Amino acid sequence: MKLSILDQSPVISGKTPREALLASVELAKHGEDLGFIRYWIAEHHNMSSLASSVPEVMLGYIGANTDKIRIGSGAVLLPHYKPYKVAETYNMLQTLFPDRIDLGIGRAPGGSAEASIALSGNYLDNVKKNPESISELLNFIYNDFPPNHFYSNTTASPLPVNPPDIWMLGTSIKSARLAAENGTGYAFGHFMSDKDGPEIVQAYKENFKQKRNMSEPYTIVTVSVICADTYKKAQDILFQTTERLLVRQNEEDAYSSKPNLNEEIAKRSKLLVLGDPKTVGQELLAIKERYQADEIMIVTITDNYRERLDSYQLVASELIQLR
């Protein structure tokens, strides 16, 4: 079974952002050793609990500390940026780490309204232009503007031998159609969606148009997982992680309403695969079958970096040999 990693670089209790980022490097190295085929790091802004605001910086560091695992963004939040700069950045990464770079594209704000304004001005206006921005980005990545286009003589250098692989990330029929129309891979965020994911993924497959270097649709489904030696231990990890997260939220915003711990655990559990390796393995196989997915990507948040590594290791031991 093909497995991969999505990392949000959580800053856990008692740790600094630097320690969170170094833990991300260790997770990528650990994932490579375990046989995960790709590692993506997310982009968030103005969030003290998540350390990765600039994925491309981390990808340069992680690429230099790994050998073969594919590395990428999950995702570049394109409404904040000019397509040309994004293309230059990921072409450079692909030049440094040939045939290992994934450029994941998203459209979420990734943070507060104030952070969005600081990054890009009118975020909502930029979202409306997102389809055009994606098209322009792809033209820069593949260096294939029409001869009479304004940018026909503009190169997003350095041009790698092969372009990075392009992915659309989302949880909606709109993102699925964008991926299909542009002939890119599609990563569906099962861990953050209550929509009919299999139907959305099927729409992507049915409408996929072969373009450039991707000959057929390819789907990744991202799932939130906590795996431990026993179901009880996995439950304890969820409880402890949620409890400490709520304590931190209350400390940072003393004026917000205080969510109930049990309610918060129940909310998280709805979209979480939790348990011992056999239970988790069976549930992930069922999700893969339900979506007819090509690959399962795992995101694991715990309040202990060792427990996070152990969770990925247990899942890998249960499933990777099933490829």
TrEMBL record:
To bacterial alkanal monooxygenase alpha and beta chains. The keyword Repressor does not apply. The keyword Oxidoreductase applies. NCBIfam families: oxido_grp_1 (TIGR03558). One of its GO terms (molecular function) is oxidoreductase activity, acting on paired donors, with incorporation or reduction of molecular oxygen. Keywords: Oxidoreductase. GO terms for cellular component: cytosol. Its EC number is 1.-.-.-. It is an enzyme of class 1 (oxidoreductase). This is MsnO8 family LLM class oxidoreductase. Residues 14-287 form the Luciferase-like domain. Pfam families: Bac_luciferase. CDD domains: Flavin_utilizing_monoxygenases (cd00347). It comes from Aquibacillus halophilus. InterPro entries: Bact_Lucif_Oxidored, CmoO-like, Luciferase-like_dom, Luciferase-like_sf.
